[in-house]
Amino acid sequence: MQIDDIPDMATLRAHIDAVDEQLVALLAQRHALIARAAQIKQQIGLPARIDERVEEVVANAGRHAASHGLDRALIENIWRQLVEAAIAQEDRHLNGDRP
Fold it and tell me: Where is the Chorismate mutase domain (predicted)?
């Protein structure tokens, strides 16, 4: 079904809800990858925050956003929040507090 073929708000909302579920599943996958990153960082003695990597991840998200016609600044802002949450997750692991 094409987006323009969605006939009503109920159907549109169902599609949005399905996309949201997919986004949450992807965030859960990212969370698992961050947990593994924390394990590896602990083994090799890296800190949770690596500023160069933060900027690289944010820039990548901005570039992807622009290529999809999205507001680059908005996506970069969202990604900064996402990265900060990931750093906090890694910090908890590195400090021995594993929720």
Answer: 3-94
Q: Would you say residue 99 has pLDDT above 70?
A: no
Domain boundaries, the chain: 9-94
Retrieve residue 4's tokens.
């323009």
* Separation CA 1–CA 79 (nearest Å): 30
The superfamily (CATH) of domain 9-94 is Chorismate mutase (1.20.59.10)
Look-up of token digits 């925050």: 49
Q: Which residues contact 59 (CB under 8 A, 6 or more apart)?
A: 76
CA gap 35, 41 in Å, rounded: 10
Sequence letter at residue 93? H
pTM: 0.87
Rg of the chain in Å (alpha carbons): 17
